[in-house]
Predict the structure.
Amino acid sequence: MTEPGGGKSDAERERPPGVIHPGVAAELRSWGLWFRPLAVVVVVMGLLGIMYMAPAVDPGKHLHQFPIVVVNSDTGALQPGTDQKQYLGAEVVKGLKAGVDEQYPGKFDLDVVDRSTALTRLDNAHAYGAIFIPANFSSESFAFLGSAIGDTKVEQPVIEVMTNPGAGAVATQITTQFFLRSMAQVNEQFGEQFTAALVEQTDAAGIKVAGAGLTAMTTPIDIQASEANPLPDNAGSGLTAFYYALLLILAGFTGTMIISALIDGRLGFAPIEIGPMYELRRRVPISRLGTLVVKWWAIFVVSLIVSGLFVLTSVLVDMYAPNKMALWMFGVLVIIGVGIIANAILSIFGSAGLLINLIFFVVLGLPTSGGTVPLEAVPGFFRGLAVGEPLHQAFVGARSILYFDANIDAGLGTAIAMFVLFTVIGLIVGPIACVVYDRRGLIRRPPQATEEPEVPAQV
């Protein structure tokens, strides 16, 4: 069988044994065939390794302004035997700040606020932990001190520490470790003061204190731990928001790649290959802009279905998701935003857009998401990238819906605004590039093939 014009068909050219097309032989000897794919893979994998390992190795090393709120409600009390009013709660706060400035300079942000503000910041995920000093702290402390030489049993003064599990598992771990170390230091300092005051009082009164009384004074404060916004067991210790956000980004990113490949194949711009079957359809005379619009409509329809599929999956696996309608609507927005900007990148850069999308949505997305390691515990470079990374915005939005009752101030408002911005950017930049290419006659079609004589193989 011959092709029009008397040339041989591809099958006939490939059939004779021991004959290699000179173009094939030249490509096999070319450095470009081997070096380029190797270089791209090595660079991408090296970038992947650095981006993923750097934030996860030692989060404590990179802590920066980790937000902890302190509530000092202590109203003070008269020091026993004097008419002077003492505010021991203020001394606790002073000791906490001095210890943080000395041991963790710049790592923790201790902000002294009122109780209402503290609870609001916990509910908005703007604080990862809180320390509450009650109003009767001074009076209870002096009463406990006096009980060491009396017969009346008095409870220890209490300080409550509160973690915020909805902020994430690693954030909760860092907060817990901070509380353990800082509050132990505060307890030790107060124990020394209480012991010295007790010895002074008993010596003046000629009373001898039993060893049990002195031992009780070494740790006079009862540190009580609790959780703000506690999560149920089926919330994955605060990780379901991250994995759900990752699913949404992958749906938009991977869905775009699949839709682009299938539509290009259907329109004749790329081959369709399934196993041994290979088909290159006749090219449909459609512009770049027209092709982009078709792909955008496809990703819009996909977003409606896939977001619903993810919500259904959350029900089937019994995931904690109290606001399912909000979760579906947010998922649609995320998939559309990612799909539109990813398709715009493909329309501008062609096949290179696959690599650009991979780096933007996946390689840079995971370490800057804040879903595994909070942004306050990663190097500053990652904190700067996070603002414009879709995965981070998807995470804070999903976290707000799942754990903070779809609170706009808990990150959902920012996430919605950013995905609307991503969508608008894609809707503007993509068509502009396509129109410029179309008007310059840069049509999506292969160049004219050239015929070269066949030569016997040298092998």
Notes: The two ends are 28 Å apart (CA to CA). The chain is about 55% helix and 10% strand. The chain has a mean pLDDT of 84.
